[in-house]
């Protein structure tokens, strides 16, 4: 075949392909126009996504980095990620090795709070750092049965390293994996993520301060953010089923806004937690809880440094609590004199629990390290008397003291 004829055939194919594309575009336009309330969707930054003759909705809103959400601007996220990268602290929330653009702030809305295949995710929402802005994107299920386009649209452009959630390890991500399993032959595979779950961090810092460590409570009490006209999360399933029946997006917009604020608050919360862990600011109860967290993680040196900072800058109560923790470290280092001296002070000025713990530790030191069995017995009997006068004393501590007293009596009888 001559080159001229080959070119002619190619032109005819190109013309046909062009016609097919135009026909497909026109078909999509026709389908979009058939969607109920399409104008309302478009007025609310929402487009239609088509896949395999089904559709879902994608809403996208953008915020400048200097937007203030609670106590912080979104640009502060870039600063804390840089701080992590410059820090030597190995911590579960460390972003070391990542950029701010690698973080993926994720939240879902579902038809129920339980697990299992019967619980449907109807909204997949997330935020990420774009070009000098925060982009919030929400993928909405028009009706049960349209999950293939929902997950296809969600998964086709996911290229982030680390998931940031609030209780997502226990709820959101397992739910997503369950639903994905049902349609995995039709959509891309789930990526492997690192995971920062901010719920567990929040519990560590504020479980004694907040009645319930819900995100809304953390927002108001910790992050300085008060929602107005918010849809409570527990109403979301009922509202969604009403939307499925009536199709009007106005019904669902409140739930979508609730989800949007949840996601933005994850950014603010991660900023705040990072600043506290990295000790950018403040000396208080949060610093004390971080010191305990570091100790739990086995970061003894960092924990000890944090306790010593509280000794210099904390309140009277915080200084006593920090001293109590330092005494344990002195005991481990076999500096018994310093530990005993500190516990004497804690026994005089600490809380009731700290006082009893300090006296108990003094009993141990007097018996085992100083061999002052008479003083150890007197102190043990005194502590036992105090504990038995309480309405709900520690049963294990009382049991230990009874055994200690009997042992000390035997030692004294032999001496």
What do you see in this structure?
This protein is of the alpha+beta class and 415 residues long. The protein is built from 16 helices and 9 strands. It has helices at residues 3-34, 38-43, 76-86, 147-155, 172-183, 198-206, 215-221, 236-246, 249-277, 285-296, 300-313, 316-332, 336-349, 352-369, 373-388, 395-414; strands spanning 46-51, 54-64, 68-69, 72-73, 103-110, 121-129, 133-140, 162-165, 194-197. The protein is elongated, with a radius of gyration of 30 Å. The mean pLDDT is 90.
Summarize this entry quickly.
This protein is an alpha+beta fold. Helix content is 57%, strand content 13%.
Rg (C-alpha, Å): 30 Å
Instruction: Output mean pLDDT.
Output: 90
Tell me the strand percentage band. Answer: 5-15%
Structural class comes to: alpha+beta
Identify the overall geometry.
elongated
Report low-confidence residues grouped into runs of 5 or more. none
CATH topology of the largest domain: Nucleotidyltransferase, domain 5
Our measurement of the CA-to-CA distance between the termini, rounded to an integer number of angstroms, reads 116 Å
Compute the number of structural domains.
Answer: 2
The major sheet is characterized as: 7 strands, mixed
CATH superfamily of the largest domain: Ribonuclease H-like superfamily/Ribonuclease H
Separate helix tally: 16
CATH architecture annotation name of the largest domain: 2-Layer Sandwich
Lateral strand order in the biggest sheet: 1-2-7-6-5-8-9
CATH class of the largest domain: Alpha Beta
What is the strand tally?
Answer: 9
Q: Roughly what percent helix?
A: 55-70%
Please provide the ordered H/E string of secondary-structure elements.
HHEEEEHEEEHEHEHHHHHHHHHHH
């Amino acid at each position: 075949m001559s080159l001229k004829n080959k070119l002619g055939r190619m032109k005819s194919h190109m013309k046909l392909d062009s016609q097919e594309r135009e026909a497909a575009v026109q078909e999509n336009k026709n389908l979009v126009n058939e969607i109920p309330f399409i104008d309302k969707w478009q007025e609310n930054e929402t487009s239609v996504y088509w896949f395999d003759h089904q559709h879902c909705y994608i809403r996208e809103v953008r915020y400048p980095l200097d937007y203030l959400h609670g106590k912080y601007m979104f640009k502060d996220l870039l600063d804390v990620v840089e701080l992590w990268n410059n820090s030597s602290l190995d911590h579960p929330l460390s972003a070391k090795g990542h950029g701010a653009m690698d973080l993926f702030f994720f939240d879902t809305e579902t038809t129920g709070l339980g697990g299992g295949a019967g619980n449907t995710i109807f909204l997949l929402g997330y935020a990420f750092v774009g070009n000098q802005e925060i982009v919030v994107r929400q993928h909405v299920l028009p009706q049960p049965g349209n999950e293939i386009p929902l997950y296809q649209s969600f998964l086709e452009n996911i290229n982030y390293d680390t998931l940031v959630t609030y209780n997502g390890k226990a709820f959101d991500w397992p739910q997503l994996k369950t639903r994905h399993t049902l349609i995995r032959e039709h959509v891309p595979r789930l990526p492997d993520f690192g995971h920062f779950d901010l719920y567990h961090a929040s519990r560590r810092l504020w479980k004694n301060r907040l009645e319930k460590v819900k995100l809304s409570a953390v927002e108001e009490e910790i992050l300085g953010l008060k929602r107005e006209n918010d849809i409570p999360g527990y109403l979301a399933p009922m509202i969604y089923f009403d939307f499925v029946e009536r199709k009007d997006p106005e019904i669902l917009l409140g739930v979508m806004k609730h989800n949007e604020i949840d996601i933005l608050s994850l950014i603010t919360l991660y900023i705040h937690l990072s600043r506290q862990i990295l000790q950018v600011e403040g000396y208080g109860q949060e610093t004390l809880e971080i010191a305990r967290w570091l100790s739990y993680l086995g970061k003894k040196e960092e924990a000890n440094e944090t306790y010593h900072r509280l000794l210099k800058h904390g309140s009277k109560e915080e200084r006593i609590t920090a001293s109590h923790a330092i005494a344990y470290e002195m005991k481990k280092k076999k500096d018994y004199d310093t530990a005993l001296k500190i516990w004497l002070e804690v026994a005089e000025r600490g809380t009731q629990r700290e006082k009893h713990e300090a006296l108990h530790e003094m009993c141990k030191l007097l018996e085992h390290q100083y061999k002052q069995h008479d003083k150890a017995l007197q102190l043990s009997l005194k502590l036992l008397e105090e504990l038995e006068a309480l309405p709900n004393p520690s049963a294990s501590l009382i049991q230990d003291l009874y055994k200690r007293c009997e042992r000390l009596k035997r030692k004294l009888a032999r001496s």
